[in-house]
Amino acid sequence: MMTNSSERVIIPAIFKHIPQLVAGISTRHGGVSSQGYQSLNLGVHTDDDPVAISSNLGLFCADLGISPDALARSYQVHGSEIWTTSCAGYQTGFDAVLTSEQGIFVGVGIADCCPILLADPVRQTAAAIHAGWKGTVAQIVHKTASAMINGGSNPSDILAYIGPCISLENFEVGDEVAEQFELKEQRGARWHVDLKATNAAQLHALGITQIEISDYCTVANNDVFYSHRKENGTTGRMLAVIGFKRRG
């Protein structure tokens, strides 16, 4: 469900009852960017006007009630490396960001790849994961959730949100990609793979069962979200963010 009259943010229902927890995914609406990036582009590595991107980030964070200075993000490389951090900032080379620090909000950029947000309200630990097909095959969700469990989280306490991404119906791939997925369908001469279901299976394998899966497809719902595939590479990025506010 959309929140705010601006329709800038989607708040996952699975997190709404958790005190201190901030979690949300941006849409493409309610920002100041123009042309192919219209309008809430949060992708710092796009060719959009940096001033517009900064303004958009301020609007999005204001809706969540946090400061942009409290974000921990990375330039993503479609890998499986995890940045475990206790401070805000911007790194390179990580597709998952994990924190147990209150007041730090981890985030990943998306525009067809699958965003996964994890939260353990008992240990106040949160993670944001960017899983394209390469990251999914590399088990980045399994690795990140395992890091939380190895850090003391009980799988039964972990809540997960699998957000808007390209759907099975629209994710057509070649044989070389399809052969790396169990959850796939052949439609005509082409294969289609299911990022959401594959990442959900990685969570289930660890005993994580409290999972919300978004119905949105970034391609089919391109009026709401950016889609790298639908828009032929010239498009903005959404941001998926999660973290716990400081007590008091």
Explain what this protein looks like in three dimensions:
The protein is of the alpha+beta class. Mean pLDDT is 96; it is low at 1-5. It is globular and about 60 Å long. The strands form three sheets. It has a seven-stranded mixed beta sheet. The chain has one domain (20-244): CNF1/YfiH-like putative cysteine hydrolases (4-Layer Sandwich). The chain has five helices and 16 strands.
Topology readout:
Layout: E1 2-3, E2 9-10, E3 21-26, H1 50-64, E4 71-75, E5 82-84, E6 89-92, E7 96-99, E8 105-110, E9 114-120, E10 125-131, H2 133-137, H3 140-150, E11 159-162, E12 172-173, H4 175-178, E13 184-187, E14 190-193, H5 195-204, E15 210-213, E16 238-244
Structural class: alpha+beta
Structure summary, number of beta strands: 16
CATH class categorisation: Alpha Beta
CATH superfamily: CNF1/YfiH-like putative cysteine hydrolases
The low-confidence parts are 1-5
Question: Strand order of the main beta sheet, please?
Answer: 1-2-3-16-8-4-6
Overall outline:
globular
- Which percent band covers the strand fraction? 25-35%
Rg of Cα set: 17 Å
CATH topology: CNF1/YfiH-like putative cysteine hydrolases
Order of helices and strands: EEEHEEEEEEEHHEEHEEHEE
Question: Which architecture per CATH?
Answer: 4-Layer Sandwich
What number of domains?
1
Average predicted confidence as pLDDT: 96
The termini sit apart by: 29 Å
Largest sheet composition: 7 strands, mixed
Tally of DSSP helical segments = 5
Helix % is 10-25%
